[in-house]
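Sequence decides. Consider this:

===
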Amino acid sequence: MFVRVAIVRTRGSAPREARAFMDVHADRLAGTIGGGQLEYMAIAEARRLLAAGGGALRMEVPLGPAIGQCCGGHVTLQLTVTEGEDAPAPRLPTVLIFGAGHVGRALARALALLPVSFRVIDPRAEELSLLPPGIERVLTPIPEAEIRAALPGTAYVILTHDHALDFLLAAEALERGDAVYVGMIGSATKRASFRSWLRRSVPGLSDAGLTCPIGAGFSRDKRPEVIAAFTAAELMGLFGPADPKEKNHENAAARTPA
């Protein structure tokens, strides 16, 4: 038995978005609703429900001086006692990384710290062997098959050792029409070359949905770890809060003078 503590609504500035949740067990926690006094209060109420053996509770919490937080917003929490030991987790955003070279390995290390599901795909066993332990890897001579088998809403990051393979994979991902992100490592010149190749090879398919170069909106630093960090930020900015309306609300709140 555990208590699912879910944020059902936010107004103004809040530490997490609506639909964020944590599960409170008698002896452990899973997830977070943002930490601080808000979370401590929710944990105390959740464990009170557990001690009572059941029930539900809705909490309206102003995030101000009264509870020692300065966010200034308001959060509505729903606490529900649930039977069983584990709650089903929501599906994480999926990222397919094509290429286990320097940037691919650096991006894998960066994404390993973030709430995403990812795997690294490469036809070269020796490069895949250099990935840190625990990272999912796919050795295949036909990496484009991974794109064809992917779920809608997948993000594709293409950074192989071969420009021709990059172009093939980018075209496959763009042709699906349901990718949340298609990124290819390169430069403005490589982007122009891809556009020219696309016109000849896949008539009617536009490169408008392609991000190339990747992570370039932050810096011109070309060190693999820096490119990886900025690409990870680019991806997480796209995934954003679970509810797009919450993202818009937060952005509006951020523009409102204090």
